[in-house]
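Hi Y.,

Following your request, here is the sequence exactly as I used it, all 100 residues.
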Amino acid sequence: MTIMHLQATVPSLGAHKLAWIVGTSAHPADDIERFGQAVGGVAMFDRVLSGEVVPCAVMAAEIQLWSMGTIQRQDWRRPARGWWGDRPTGWFNPRVPAAA
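Below is the corresponding structure, written out as C-alpha cells. Let me know if you'd prefer a different format.
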C-alpha cells in the first residue's frame, strides 16, 4: 500500500496536481514508481509533493511529460487554491478515461 504524506497546506499547484494524479490512479504505487524513473528516484516523490524540492526547468519538463501535460512547468511556481481534497485549478487527467 502506498501512503502520501501531505503537509497541512498545499505548497504549489504542481504538488496539488501531482497528489491528484496519484490519488485518482487505479495503480498509485506504479505511478509513483514511474514518477521516480522520470525524475531520478522514488524518494523524490515525497520531497516534491511536500514542497521541499521545487523542480528545476529540466525536472519540470520531465514531470510535464510523465503527467501527459496535466502538470505544466510553471505550476510549480503557482500557488495552490484550496486544500488537498479540493479539485486543483484547471484539473484534467488524460490518464483516466472519461466516463461514458
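The mean pLDDT is 85.

Thanks again,
Q.
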